[in-house]
Prior knowledge:
Two copies of one chain form a homodimer.
Chain A: H1 12-22, E1 25-29, E2 34-37, E3 44-48, E4 53-58, E5 64-70, E6 75-76, E7 89-94, E8 98-104, H2 105-109, H3 116-144, H4 149-164, E9 168-170, H5 175-181, H6 186-198, E10 202-205, E11 208-211
Helix pairs in contact in A: 3-4
The structure holds a DNA duplex.
Amino acid sequence: MEQFPLFRNITAEQWQDMQRCFGVVERSYRADEVIYDFGDGRNMIGIVLSGSAVVERIDDQGNRAILEHLTPGGVFGEMLMFANVHGDSIRVLCEQPGRVCFLSYQALTKRCENACDHHSRLVENMFTLVADKATLLSERVEVLSRRSIRDKLLCYFAMQSAKGQQSAFTLPFTLSALADYISADRSAMMRELKKMRAEGIVEVKGRQVRLTA
Amino acid sequence: MEQFPLFRNITAEQWQDMQRCFGVVERSYRADEVIYDFGDGRNMIGIVLSGSAVVERIDDQGNRAILEHLTPGGVFGEMLMFANVHGDSIRVLCEQPGRVCFLSYQALTKRCENACDHHSRLVENMFTLVADKATLLSERVEVLSRRSIRDKLLCYFAMQSAKGQQSAFTLPFTLSALADYISADRSAMMRELKKMRAEGIVEVKGRQVRLTA
DNA sequence: AAAAATATGTGACATTTGCCACAAATGGGT
DNA sequence: ACCCATTTGTGGCAAATGTCACATATTTTT
């Protein structure tokens, strides 16, 4: 338990204390189960402990879009991601079965009298989780702010290969999901990928990608 | 000084201490001055205290894009926004003259032995600033993830009017800047706005916008 | 092992968008 | 009050993108 970012420098016993102090709730979820529904106004922060989840938006016309992929360490909640535009609903759905814990944003940001040491350690750890979230969101904004599908793909590929420090890497999701991530039509993306392959800019077989430029 | 989020529950004297402890640097900037250049690898967190700044990216073809607007309380830095894709440069430029303070990400996340009370208060305050940043980025992702210019505009307008709890509101920037924000061509956006006006969906005069749907 | 569901790949066609060029309006600064 | 820079507004045209429709892998479930 100690190696997970949320629990850094926190012992199991201290975590027990905190659960009482902050009203922490921990739950398991099965695939496709609804973990959280924005608009319920529960004002909670959720943290993915294991498994994975997706934040999806369904607008008034019924279009589904994936706003975020959450892996262990991922955080969500109204205070961390303003959402509810008029009619469309935003939900967090379980993808890979796993555990999620919830704590109140208020309890975290308001200094409490007792157990203040626990408190500050938890805030420190939450700080790194939220900072990581900001990084991921920044990356996505960088990709989405490109004007064309080609530029979006090149930006995303460049980032991924920079992370692994190799020109080749494996996509963390399917090509269909990649189309969602860059917010483009799947078949339009496929067409562009074909062109890019033909021009010798990238090699794509399955989820293996290599930048050859 | 106490009302600014970064300094909540921190007195001027404590702030003096912290500046020594964390090696905080504070500086003033004139309009158009370069505040920060990613890729210098200084690994600092910057916080806008007053004035405003923009985070801009110039890609290898020379295209300029605004990634973020920073107002007082806005934070930036490599650890908070992964950036440097291959050749293109990302910089923070001063817009409205003001002050910025810098502190080391390491000092913030590593528990220090002395002055631990200062430390945890600062982390708490940084937590709220980074959480706010995550919120802003989430909003932008929500807008950018819409497929068409019209949907982007409607999403953005809906968010703004939801904030003010009114159907009318004032744009925080020019229409040109709005085009940058939604990452669309300005004239294409104008064309779409004209159509929307003609259909009676919105009223736009200057920076005044009203949703009439 | 078969069946069902999901993902990949491709093409034709309509629409949207980006790009360019230019005129008018607005806004700061001196 | 003037000038200069920026913003707003508009149109034509080419290129990029989305939509639909379908065939083929691939993966997952039964």
